[in-house]
Amino acid sequence: MLPSIWPGDLLTIEPARHAEIVRGDVVLVLRNHRVFIHRVVEMKDRNDDRMWITRGDSMPQSDPPTTVSDLAGRVVRISRGGRSFAPSRRISLLDSALAWICCRSDRIRNLVLRIHAARLRTELARKVDLAEDANGAICLPYIPQSSTSHV
Q1: 53-108: per-residue pLDDT in tens?
Q2: Cα–Cα distance, 41 to 26 (Å, whole number)
Q3: What domains does the chain contain, in order, with CATH numbers?
Q4: Would the CA dihedral through 84, 11, 81, 116 be positive or negative?
């Protein structure tokens, strides 16, 4: 779901009645023993059954139709870097351009993900005052579980 959802984001997912799901919602779909977080791009009604067509923001093709039984919930909050926000139903022009590029270029997508991971490591190091070893691994300080525990 780049660039709307990034690795490390925490998602709040709530159950939603099928009548509440609208185009642009980011939903959790369970299909073929797999979990997908994708955006609703189209809704269809067939023989009194509602179906949704979903697609990841940086995916080239839509998913097969999603039925009521596949729909597990809707993403209502995204927490990233100490802030929390509701997912937008519309993708900005800049995000659309980044999604298009990531969809068509594995190199650029991998570069963007590496930059994001490096940024996350830097933020974590600042927050916890950590050090990295020569291989780039983060060294966590030892914190005892309890000051009264006995070994």
Answers
A1: 999 999 999 999 999 899 999 999 999 988 999 999 999 999 999 999 999 999 99
A2: 10
A3: 10-130 (2.10.109)
A4: negative
